[in-house]
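Researcher: Going back to the complex we discussed earlier. I've cleaned up the inputs and rechecked each line, so this should be the final set. Can you rerun the prediction on the complete assembly and write out the structure?
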Amino acid sequence: MSANTWTIAAARDALRAGQITAVDLTMSCLTAIDAADGLNAFVHKTPDIALEQARVADLRLAKGDAPAMCGIPLGIKDVFCTKGVASQAGSNILKGFKPEYESSVTRKLFGDGAVMLGKLNMDEFAMGSSNESSCYGPVVNPWKVDELRRTPGGSSGGSAAAVAADLCLAATGTDTGGSIRQPAAFTGITGIKPTYGRVSRWGVIAYASSLDQAGPMTKSVRDAAIMLQSMAGHDPMDSTSADLPVPDFEAALTGDIRGKKIGIPREYRIDGIPAALDRLWQDGTAMLKDAGAEIVDISLPHTKYALPAYYVIAPAEASSNLARYDGVRYGHRAGLAGGDGITEMYEKTRAEGFGPEAQRRIMVGTYVLSAGFYDAYYNRARKVRSLIKRDFEQAFAAGIDAILAPIAPSSAFGLGEVGSADPVEMYLNDVFTVTLNLAGLPGVAVPVGLDQKGLPVGLQLIGRPWEEGALLNHAYVLERAAGFVSKPQKWW
Amino acid sequence: MSIDIDTARKVAKLARIRVEEADLPKLAGQLSGILGFMEQLNEVDVTGIEPMVSVTPMRLKRRADVVTDGNIQAQILKNAPDAREGFFAVPKVVE
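Model: Rerun complete. Updated structure for the full complex:
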């Protein structure tokens, strides 16, 4: 098998054993990327940087003290600022922007010797569930079972498609309301959203600061553990970054979950969920039971209100975060007519630079924060958020170790099929994922099977705060029991 | 809560996003739909519940209030759409 199809764990071992060089491994990915323009996953390719980083990685490997990520070729979501390389967060308002600094996540990964192949497509400012709000145009899901071109999900759609199509060994993603887990599910890969505060947000272009969290998107649970190890840890540049020790996540993968209590939340069983998804949820439950876990029906009573609370809080924070795009310090500035003053410059710049969904969310956020509506919308949503978090705390206090739930109400849908007439229709895709962003909890997506169309379906496990190791171990058991090995047939 | 055209115009102004008059009815309709969806929150009894301020119960880290960098004017101006004589340049603000 060509090296670009390898897992991080396999490549790490082969690199250390001298069976392949980082340069050859990187070349196999660069070749795959150049043959995959039809997917529209990589939007800024960086082959020169990749090969230089790979050469340095080979020198470190030759010395024999290389970290696990040394020489591993990665795709980087466009939302991460990378020094001297275009970083647009999928938006025209950042066209031409090349940061003068490196995000903490990419600095840590590159410090461990990882290789950057390029920047990956995404929904504009991570606002979307289908990658269709990107200024680069949508990513196409490598899974093709008929004539329909499907979404890879969003907002980390480029990351998901690139990993599923073996264009890279793994990719970085970010998850504000499901943007790692839903695309992972739509493309049959693994992804973890860590506990809020586990991974530094410094240099990650902000959408909703109290919800945003970066994480790895990988081909296996073990790879997620290895890559998260490199990304995680305290950073003085992010005041919300937790000053807690980072445990050895890979060492937590014992495969033993005997006696653990798995909660099955009854509120996630909603009307209209396809039978195949419901069946795979039941299959996943049975797999954890067979592994010796105790299955417990639980209630998270405020689940229904997570989605409206999210769509108040996230736009409110976005309207504030995106106020910085004013055409003065970086990014796009509109051409001005004679007599235009600074207000016209702001208004024209932002109308030209932001796409329709970003504009809508900025305006919704502006409205819910405006005088007279702040209490009715924003403060009420923050109170409901407290209740949603309390639901989880009560479940964990009752002894639940992890919660097993669906990720999305369907498998990958067709491009252009959802939300073109009514934006709320697209928001409904996030119904199972936003809850744990609101509660700050870690969640991992694991592929478990195919639906009747032949499209991948994933399940998510939700864990206790700061216990990503135990959570990944549950995911590891589910992964081994499900034995999901299907890959998309190459058509691109 | 239904958003009328005047409210949509006001919100666009507050957000500093130019919206053409012809596009305001569609915007008002979409904002009404989204805010209507949020009305569900009114079903929840939030009596005595504090609004969430921080999702993790930890005090924000503090650091000494000292200068940690500087002399990077060229880097700061590097991405500016218009920079002159070491400053960001914008249209005339004061008449």
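Model: Worth noting: The mean pLDDT of chain A is 97.
Researcher: Good, that matches what I expected from the previous run.
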